[in-house]
## 1
Amino acid sequence: MKDYNRNQNPNDVHQWTPKETVEAIQNVSKNIREYSFRMRETMKTLRESGAIQEMADAIKGATFAVRDTVNDINETTKDLKQKNVFAETAGAIEHTLTTVEDSVATVKELTTGAVKASPHTSKVIHDGLDLVKKETPHVTGKVMKGFKTKVGVS
């Protein structure tokens, strides 16, 4: 087949002589027989070696492992839901957000007194608190939304 491909350009098929065409067909036929024989021998060797059965057993084992893992995950998720873990976690996050907001308000009140004592320091603290106050609900909201979506809590 190598000789056929190297010596003949497929675009030149219309220029072949009848003898060249016959030789090309004979070469292709010979290659088909040769490759068929090699394929039969390869399959025979694979079958006799047990490689095909071994591969089938490996795929079967992997399939069972995936099935068992999915079942374990499903059971664990149901247990967590039944024990109200997701709702309690969501409640704890909500409580934490409220506590943080209260803390920010308290610190802000404290800085009001510090404004009189040190204007520059109090401005830095005030700017920091504004940033925390602005970002905390945004970040917590994203966390709660993602958590509620995964858990399926409305």
Note: The first helix runs from residue 2 to 7.
## 2
Amino acid sequence: MNALIKELQPYHNEIYGTLEPFCDDREQGLMLSLYNQLTNDSMYLWCCEDKVKQDLMIVSSKDKTKQNMYMQSDKDMAQYFSKSSRDDAINYSLDQVNKFLDKDLKINI
């Protein structure tokens, strides 16, 4: 998550965010909440290690539960990356932020 936050610096005029831990019965990790400063829209990115596949799991959504968890329908759309493909996970997350901002910013690692 720290590497992703570093890559989000060019977005500082458009978004701000908070980073919080999350934990459910099977996964624990970090949730990044992002807020569009112009529209007050929000999006969320969850990052954790999948207990079954032992890969990085990235879930993105515009919704979250009151417990800061993702919706099951969003988890069904989760993307998985091997631990050695951290840059791919970051690029996927940046693409999700671009979609959220409806921009064509291309930041690649």
Note: The radius of gyration is 13 Å.
## 3
Amino acid sequence: MKIRILIIILLITKSLCSQDVDFMDSLFQIDFSQISDVSYDLQMTDMKRLESDWGLSAGVNITNSYQEEIDAGLSTRVFAKINVLSSGYYTNRVDAEIIRNQMMIDSLQGIDRAADHNYGIYYDYIISQYNQQKIEVIDSIITSSKKLKDYYATLYYNKLIDYEKLLKVTSTIDQYYMLQKSQIAYNEIVESMQLDSILPAIPTNGFEVDFKGIRDLLSNDTTASQVVLIRDEILDLKHEKEKSPSLSITGGYDISRRRPYYSVGFSTRITRNKSQHIDAHKEKYRNDLRLENIQRKKELINLQYEYEYKDKQIRGLYLKLEIIKEQKRKFAVKKDILSLEECAEEKKIDLERHMIFYEIMDLRQQQMLLLLRVKKSIWKQKIMPFLKPIDQSPNSKKFSGKRFLVVEEGKVLNRIDIHILEQNEITPLLPKDLIVLQNVITIDPARYETRAEMESAIEGLIDTENIAHFVIRSMDSFKALELRTIEQKDYHLTASTK
């Protein structure tokens, strides 16, 4: 029955999480370990058992007494006994109250074993989710590598290159094939847990993390203070139980002598320096809390360093992609305009681009795992308010503003014109689409002697009039401006430098 209830809860949680963009916070809403539930059930049964235990006991006592000659012989007694204070009714009530306080602590800060177990499951899930994307990227790497290998093989057979290049490509295929094989095996194990049907999808974007805000949250968190006060109460209860006197009352009937009997026993412990001992324990709790907070903040600083370093690496790889993209464009221009055949370098660029994508995916996976560690350190608190989605790719625009070329409907641009537009970040646009643009102005390249003059004018319009969109109506006038710029004899820096 409990398993069915758990499945229903997980499915409901999945429905909620699928609508919840707070990925990290939604993860820790699910307790796969059930350690918290099992501990709660055990604590409740222990508490009920203690509260129903009044310290009563019953039994039979048989003794052989020689107090007097006339009294010699066996004595058989049935009795009932109650321990009222220590080891009895009072002690059981104190123990029940200690359990109740421990349940309050577990509710405030959670159970470490449960957090550790669930963290491990979430860790595996994040790796498997990114592996799915990395496996697809590796497919592209292997495909591009095989194309390049075939091309290199042809060149090698014609004695145009050394065999070393062919070996490097073969090695790349083997390395990524083995890497993909291990990722597929890893995912098969995780898939057997059917986490995809329970946990939310992982966001694909990067995050800017407010680590200072998280540290301030830890500093201002009152949960730890509440836990310390409850621990103080538990400590007081334990010492009250230890110093409680013992009082037992026994009553029964002596069957051999046919008469009732009773006995009363009372004792108390005599100790010194009790208050000092309690205060020392309380001070230890507070010092442990102080050290724990310091350690958590130190861990957050280390996580911040690792996270931001990987962010720097990702941004560098995106910049490298832009460089490769420009190299790819140059080869495409040479091939289309100069009628050159596709060369090995273009195939090599395709391979390198896929390999960079894989590195970016791998770094993002590592960043998400670091965020999971951050979340674990404050798993009872929300972390998403401290995460801001960001675009980690650099803003590598060559020219200011957004530029468009008006192309009459039905007119087809040739490949040379398309290359020119791509190089200059100009987007073709139909006349009817102009109406959707706002904050737009027309730029006539024929008015300027050089490209630098036009760029200076555009930057001035952006700065002074906040113009965002610039429209060019004639492709011929733009190409003429480019020719005038190339042919200029006297070179002057007319564009503003910022």
Note: The beta strands are 56-65, 73-83, 206-209, 246-254, 259-267, 387-390, 402-406, 426-429, 440-442, 469-472.
